[in-house]
């Protein structure tokens, strides 16, 4: 290392000041103007998080928001060179530090996950789309799905209910299908049941609806298996209309 | 590849991407992006990026290399950067003479480096390493700064030594010279004359905002003011033709207004560099 310890320490103290707002440099910097660095750096993070988590930002009061962002930036060492990926680190930080307990917001992790994944799917690297044919047999062919998706499992209905209206008694198990619409690139999300979440998971394993229904029979003990299969097919046809199911495997 | 020497370009921003592609009002000769904002990007924005880079030559101006950082270079990032620069046939890759990462934490903004001999040696070594790895010269930009930090030499000496010893190019940001001359009370023209002008490969121009009686911030959110145009005119007379970029990051005016700024820059380039070129041929 060609950099001397003294120089390195000065650089470290300036960077630390930008993260924490606590200035330990004295004569090394212009005391009148150095605060602009803290302001400019902090605003970049604050703006990024505001735009990534608009629902939580709207819900949180200013004091809570500022405290969370300030503590995050002061104590978490951002690892990504891409500022637009910082919200992913923020979500993980909120989980690691158990902010939902601290602020008595049981739905907080679910809400941050929902908002982050929407952004993540919108910007994620393009996946290679498999080849497919438009027509086929809904029962026996393997269905081809849009590879740019995630299924979230959450405890609170953050995708259907405004945070202010979410109560403890809303706690349950909710599944959200989120995917990138292939033509426009916009992110779509659907509230789906556990049956449909498992159906999609099994489609990923290249199983036909007939095979999937058979496997799900063991879990759900359908009274009328044929009716259940038709029900799943109707769901899949709807997903084809919505550009999630692309077609049938060639 | 279409030459962009002596031509004017604009920083391509998502804020005006659609309008830019759908209308023909703003007509730069090339565009510039921060690679960090596009590497690993897919979906809608990748489609837009692919479309615009098919139409315009591209330069890149980095934000996260953190060439002045005490931390190790980020090799994972450099690997992706190298692929990106090749994939999009990037004509110039530049970075800031500053640091944006320290103690293993990114800051996403440009902090001033102490103007010191050990910092020169440290940065020279890092620039050489980056140039060897990328297999191309990089251009280093003189940054605006709002406080000197424990300086032991003056700024032009700091820049000169780094550029000469690392054999890199200089991205001369004329607005930054103006801003720094105001903030640190020196003569902008004298400052420019002290720089390694034979190494200038790229020029940046931008607007700024005076926030205190004795402080200007380099915001990229205002129009270029006349004294900065004058300084640009002065600078072009001292150097060979290079690409000139208009940086505008927010508070965007109508495209006609941006094009007006581009036209004014291009006219200055043409007035100085076309006769100069003719005289040497």
From the alpha-carbon coordinates, what is the Rg of chain A to the nearest angstrom? 24 Å
Gyration radius of chain B, in Å: 18 Å
Which residues of chain A sit in consecutive blocks of at least 5 with pLDDT less than 50?
Answer: none
Shape of chain B: globular
Given the structure, what is the number of helices of chain A?
10
The chain-level structural class of chain B is: alpha/beta
The outline of chain A comes out as elongated
**How much of the residues of chain A is beta strand, in percent?**
5-15%
Order of helices and strands of chain B: EHEHEHEEEHEHEHHEEEHEH
Total DSSP E strands of chain B: 12
Q: Indicate the low-confidence ranges of chain B by residue numbers.
A: none
Mean pLDDT of chain B: 97
The portion of residues assigned to helices of chain A is 40-55%
β-strand amount of chain B = 15-25%
Largest β-sheet summary of chain A: 3 strands, antiparallel
Distance between the termini of chain A: 58 Å
What portion of residues of chain B is helical? 40-55%
Overall number of strands of chain A? 6
Write a structural description.
The complex is a heterodimer of chains A (250) and B (281). Chain A is mainly α and 250 residues long. Chain A is built from 10 helices and 6 strands, in the order H-H-H-H-H-H-H-E-E-E-E-E-H-H-H-E. In chain A, strands 1-6-2 form a 3-stranded antiparallel beta sheet. A 3-stranded antiparallel beta sheet of chain A has the order 3-4-5. Chain B is globular, with a radius of gyration of 18 Å. Chain B starts with 7 loop residues before the first strand and ends with a helix. In chain B, 42% of the residues lie in helices and 19% in strands. The model of chain B has no long low-confidence stretch (mean pLDDT 97). In chain B, helix 4 (117-134) runs parallel beside helix 5 (155-166) and helix 8 (226-236) runs parallel beside helix 9. Chains A and B meet through helix 1, helix 2 and helix 7 of A and helix 2, strand 5, strand 6 and helix 4 of B.
């Amino acid at each position: 290392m060609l950099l001397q310890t003294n120089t390195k320490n000065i650089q470290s103290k300036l960077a630390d000041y930008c993260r924490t707002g606590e200035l330990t440099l004295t004569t090394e910097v212009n005391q009148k103007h150095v605060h602009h660095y803290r302001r400019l750096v902090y605003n970049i993070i604050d703006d990024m998080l505001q735009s990534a988590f608009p629902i939580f930002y709207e819900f949180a009061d200013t004091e809570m928001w500022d405290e969370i962002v300030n503590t995050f930036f002061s104590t978490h060492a951002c690892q990504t060179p891409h500022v637009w990926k910082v919200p992913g680190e923020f979500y993980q930080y909120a989980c690691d530090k158990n902010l939902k307990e601290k602020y008595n917001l049981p739905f907080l992790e679910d809400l941050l996950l929902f908002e982050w994944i929407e952004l993540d799917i919108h910007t994620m690297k393009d996946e290679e789309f498999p080849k497919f044919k438009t027509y086929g047999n809904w029962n026996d062919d393997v269905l081809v799905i849009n590879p740019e998706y995630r299924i979230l499992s959450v405890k609170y209905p953050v995708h259907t209910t405004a945070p202010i209206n979410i109560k403890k008694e809303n706690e349950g198990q909710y599944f959200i299908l989120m995917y990138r619409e292939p033509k426009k690139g916009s992110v779509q999300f659907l509230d789906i049941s556990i049956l449909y979440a498992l159906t999609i998971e099994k489609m990923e394993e290249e199983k036909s609806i007939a095979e999937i229904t058979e496997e799900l029979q063991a879990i759900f003990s359908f009274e009328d298996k044929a009716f259940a299969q038709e029900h799943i097919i109707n769901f899949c046809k709807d997903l084809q209309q919505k550009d999630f199911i692309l077609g049938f495997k060639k | 590849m279409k030459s962009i020497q002596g031509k004017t370009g604009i920083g391509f921003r998502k804020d005006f991407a659609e309008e830019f592609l759908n209308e023909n009002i703003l007509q730069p000769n090339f565009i510039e992006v921060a690679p960090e904002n596009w590497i690993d990007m897919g979906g809608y924005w990748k489609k837009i990026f692919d479309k615009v880079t098919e139409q315009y030559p591209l330069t890149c101006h980095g934000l996260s290399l953190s060439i002045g950082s005490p931390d190790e270079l980020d090799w994972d990032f450099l690997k992706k950067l190298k692929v990106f620069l090749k994939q999009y046939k990037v004509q110039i890759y530049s970075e800031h003479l500053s640091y944006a990462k320290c103690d293993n934490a990114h800051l996403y903004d440009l902090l001033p480096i102490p103007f010191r001999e050990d910092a020169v040696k440290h940065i020279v070594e890092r620039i050489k390493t980056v140039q060897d790895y990328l297999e191309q010269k990089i251009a280093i930009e003189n940054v605006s700064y709002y406080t000197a930090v424990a300086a032991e030499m003056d700024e032009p000496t700091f820049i000169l030594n780094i550029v000469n010893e690392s054999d890199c190019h200089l991205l001369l940001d004329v607005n930054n010279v103006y801003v720094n001359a105001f903030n640190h009370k020196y003569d902008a023209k004298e400052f420019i004359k002290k720089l390694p002008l034979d190494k200038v490969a790229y020029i940046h121009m931008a607007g700024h905002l005076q926030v205190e009686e004795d402080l200007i911030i380099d915001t990229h959110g205002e129009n270029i003011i006349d004294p900065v145009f004058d300084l640009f005119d002065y600078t072009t007379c001292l150097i060979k033709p290079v690409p000139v970029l208009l940086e505008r990051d927010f508070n965007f005016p109508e495209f006609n207004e941006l094009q007006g700024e581009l036209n004014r820059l291009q006219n200055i380039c043409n007035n100085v560099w076309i006769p100069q070129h003719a005289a040497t041929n």
